[in-house]
Amino acid sequence: MPFGDVLYLDCAARAPMLRGVHAAARLALEANAAPWTQSFDALEAQVEAVRALAAGLLDGDAEAVAPVPSAAFALSTAARNLPLAAGEAVLLLEGQFPSNLLPWQQRCAETGARIAAVRRAPGQGWTNAVLAALDAEPRVRVVALPQVRWDDGALLDLDRIAPRVHAAGAALVLDLSQSLGALPAGIARWQPDFVASVGYKWLLGPRGLSWLWAASRWREAGVAIEQHWSARDAGDGWRFPVEAPPPPRRGARRFDAGGLDEPLPLAMAAAGLEQVLAWGVPDIATALGKCTRALDDALDAHGLSAWKTPGHAPHLTALRPPAERLDAVFDALRRERIICTRRHGLLRIAPHLHVTPEDMSRVAAVAARAA
Ligand SMILES: Cc1ncc(COP(=O)(O)O)c(C=O)c1O
């Protein structure tokens, strides 16, 4: 446990900063003190290098990837571009993260379309609930989903959902903020229109640098929500005539957001992404799966099986104590310096590789004492 006596289980909120990310940040800060040493070409090369690293966790195609400031920015770009008309519906999960709700609410208000919220029947998993909602809703035009729920780690089977979305003639938009870097992304199988992910959780990078992935048709015809020069191909002379703007840059660069060509966050993002790629996402998922399984097993052993989250992802789960014990359990964990998020009646547990299965057995033991 490398954080003194703290057991940090809140990586779904924000990853702890790796030593490598910290070192990269210090170097970038020092370089920033001498801006004359930084050429425009070097900065552009740095943006391209980080774009390629992010693509390495998606489908490997750097042409499909753009840096943006937030997941909401990426999802607002998707909402701005996807066709939607009065009477049509956007399908999403009840309680999904607001960055993948607000852009659709806004677009529905503009177009007269409506949100069709997927709700679960008792005992039903989210995958089956989505498939049932697709059957029940004939006019779905956009399906906007996560791979893993942000609040309790419940996993959606996108291999089952994506073909049904396409068969319904709807666009697929994915917010992978709670899975990219911790679970393999099947972009080629899922064929989404747009994908969003923050960089500061499972990608181990800084806040303020997120990622947008766009399918090839949107790289050719998509419109950015911000008019920034960095997304325009102004040629060697870098001229912006008054009569008409220069054409968008190649590929998903037409969606590149302004202000992100900054060495400090780029260096931090690169260090985080390189480490994730070096560890390998399948190995990260396997190791974190051992941790959350150890937690589930220990809950069973303490007679607290009802506190488990069924069908959770390997890296993310939640304790579900009875409402009247929630605060007592959370306080007991805090006293033991075990850090997690308490929200909506759940205690969200999100380890990374600094956590061992033995640590998770201790979490269950502390929780059981407060049960
Ligand atoms: C699923 C999900 N999407 C997005 C975000 C953050 O989005 P944004 O970058 O828009 O703040 C979070 C943060 O917790 C999240 O859990």
UniProtKB/TrEMBL annotation:
It comes from Luteimonas soli. GO terms for molecular function: transaminase activity. This is Aminotransferase class V-fold PLP-dependent enzyme. It comes from the Bacteria. Keywords: Aminotransferase, Pyridoxal phosphate, Transferase. Pfam families: Aminotran_5 (PF00266). Residues 8-217 form the Aminotransferase class V domain. InterPro entries: Aminotrans_V_dom, PyrdxlP-dep_Trfase, PyrdxlP-dep_Trfase_major, PyrdxlP-dep_Trfase_small.
